[in-house]
Structure formats: C-alpha cells, structure tokens
Amino acid sequence: MGNKASTPLGVVDEGSQLSNDQMQEFLANTNFTPKEIQKLLLIYRKIGGYGISQTPKIEPEEFVQALKYSNPEIGFLMYKMIDSDGSGTIEFSEFVEGLNAFLPESPLDKKIELCFNVYDDDHGGTISKDEVTKIIMMSTKDNQFIQLDDAHLNLLVDELFEKYDSSLVGVTEDDDEEKRKGNMSLADFAKMVKASPGILDIFEFDTSMLPSPEEIMA
User: What is the CA radius of gyration of the chain?
Assistant: First the structure.
C-alpha cells in the first residue's frame, strides 16, 4: 500500500466538504439521509486519505474494515462491484451510488446488474454454472433453514439453468459437452433472481452498520 496524503478528519480541506448542491444531488438520487451521507464522506476520507476533489486509491481490506462487514467475503465482492474497472480508484460519487444500489429499498434491477457484472470476470456477457453456484452457496451459507450438500447444490443449479438459461433451449444430450454446460446471460440471470429475489439478500447494505462519527474519527 502506497503512502497517502493524510488529512485529520477534524479538519476540512478545500474540496473535502460537500456543497449544498452536492448534498441535494445525493439526496435526490439516493436513498441515504443527510447524516448517512456525511458518515460516508468521513469514511471515504479516512480510507482514501483525500478530499472528495481527488480520486483516492482505496484498498479492499480498508473498505471492508471501515464499513464493518461481518462477512469479509461479501465486503470484498461489494468492493469489486463498486470498483467496476478494477483500478482501485473510487470517486466519492461511485462510493455512495454503489452502496446505495444495495440498500433494501433500492431497485432490484440495479442489484442484479452489479452482481452479474462482478461474476462475469471476462466481460463476455454470460456467467457459468460455477459462478451461479458460488452465489447460491453464499446466499445459503448462514441460513439455518437451508442447508445444501454439494450434490443437492449442483442439482439445484442444474435445474435453475434448465429453467432460465436461454442458451440451453433446444440443446439435447447428443450435443457436445461445451454446449450442454450452459451460459446464463444478464436477462436470464435477472429472470432467475426475480423469481427468487432472496438470492441477493446477502449483498444488502444495512445503514445500521455505519459507525458513528466518533468511531470513524478514532
């Protein structure tokens, strides 16, 4: 991790405080309250070491720790969703809008798109059975009512692909293995998730996780 220009959180540098217009824009386009946006600004400044007029390099570990994710794996995936180009540089607007997308009251379509994109590593426009399996595994991991062993998990994913993967339409047992593997498009994935929206509940961002200003500044 490189050295960062450090700014005491109690001091407001030029460009590191939201103007009234900026605040109103965030309030108009997100579901955060003014207090929550101010907390996010403090967190952003702490982990980035810059004012909002600059775009800091934010490390995944700092992101996960600052936002108090109890499951670091979920936190790292959220980081990847926000840092969509993998550069590690995240503008404050991206930081806020990315977290806003996963508030419970935010539109499901945006959550679906961000989740799909983070698993579509090669940007080929599809995700495989292995990637959908990872999502299902995480969504059921801490659910005491749903415990799936590997055999049942694989069977469930096979059934989901048979039902929702449009690339498998017309494919038979006589087709080659590569064609029978299936690759789910964003539209297919959206249909699957909308039929069982709880799949993405693990990614929901709970604003009660936000530390107090005093905790942030400690």
Answer: 20
Q: How many residues does the chain have?
A: 218
Looking at the DSSP bridge assignments, the partners of residue 126 are: 185
Please say if the pLDDT value at position 164 is more than 90: yes
Helices (H), 103-208: 108-119, 129-141, 150-164, 177-181, 186-195
pTM of the model: 0.79
Amino acid residing at 64: V
Which residue is listed with tokens 């929206």? 197
Checking if the pLDDT of 172 tops 80, the result is no
**What average pLDDT score do residues 207-216 get?**
83
Candidates 207, 204, 183; CA nearest to 115 is: 204
The more confidently predicted of residues 88 and 31 is 31
Residue 118 in contact with residue 98, Cβ under 8 Å? Answer: no
What's the CATH class of domain 21-108+205-217? mainly alpha
What is the 3-state composition of the chain as percent helix, strand, coil, each rounded to the nearest 5?
55, 5, 40
CATH level 2 (architecture), domain 111-203: Orthogonal Bundle (1.10)
Q: Which residues neighbour 29 within 8 Å (Cβ) at sequence distance 6 or greater?
A: 97, 100
Predicted confidence at residue 175, as pLDDT, reads: 65
Q: Indicate the SS3 state at residue 185.
A: strand
